[in-house]
Amino acid sequence: MAVEREESESQMTDIEIIFRTPSSAECNRIQAAVGWREAPTAVLETAFRNSLVVVCATADGKVIGMGRVVGDLTTWNYIQHVIVLPDWQKLGVGRRIMRALLGWLAEHAPPTSNCALVCRRHNVAFYERFGLREFVAEVPGMRMKLREAVTT
C-alpha cells in the first residue's frame, strides 16, 4: 500500500493519500457531507471491486476524501468519486487525490489512452489544472440510467 504524506499548514495534521478502498460507511459519510445520496453497501462494494484503483485521503486515521478510476486501461479511463469532506476542501486534499490517480494512470495505461470525468460546472477550473478539458460541442457528454434505456 503506497502512502503519500504532507503536513497541512491549515489543519496542523498529517494528511495521507493511501491506495485502499474505503468502507461503505466511510464513503457514505463523505457523500452525505457533500450532498450526495448515500448508496447501499452492496452497490459500493461492487463499484469499488470493479474499479482499477481507489485512493483515500486520511487525517488522524479518518477518511476525509477519496477518488477512483474505472476503465479498460487501454482506450478510456474515467476518474470517479473524487470527493472531500467540506471542512477539508480548499486545502489541497482534492489536488493530492487527483495527483495520485493520474500518477497511477501514467504508470499503468499507455500514453495514447484517454482520461475523462464528469463534474459540476463549478469544479471545471479545478480539473482543468490537471490538463482535463471540456469536450467540444460536437462531442457532447451523455449519460442515462439503464432503467431509462430505450431498446428498439
Structure in words:
With 152 residues, the protein is an alpha+beta fold. The protein has one domain (3-148): Gcn5-related N-acetyltransferase (GNAT) (Aminopeptidase, 3-Layer(aba) Sandwich). The protein is 26% helix and 27% strand. The chain has helices at 24-33, 41-49, 93-108, 124-128, and strands at 3-8, 13-18, 53-59, 62-71, 76-84, 114-116. A six-stranded mixed sheet has the order 1-2-3-4-5-6, sandwiched between helices. It is globular, with a radius of gyration of 16 Å. The N and C termini lie far apart (47 Å). Mean pLDDT is 88; it is low at 3-12.
List keywords for this structure.
single chain; 152 residues; alpha+beta; Aminopeptidase; six-stranded mixed beta sheet; 4 helices; 26% helix; 27% strand; disordered N terminus
Would you kindly provide a brief summary of this structure?
The protein is of the alpha+beta class and 152 residues long.
Question: Which architecture name does CATH use?
Answer: 3-Layer(aba) Sandwich
Largest sheet: 6 strands, mixed
* Low-pLDDT residue intervals, each spanning 5 or more residues: 3-12
Strand arrangement in the largest pleated sheet: 1-2-3-4-5-6
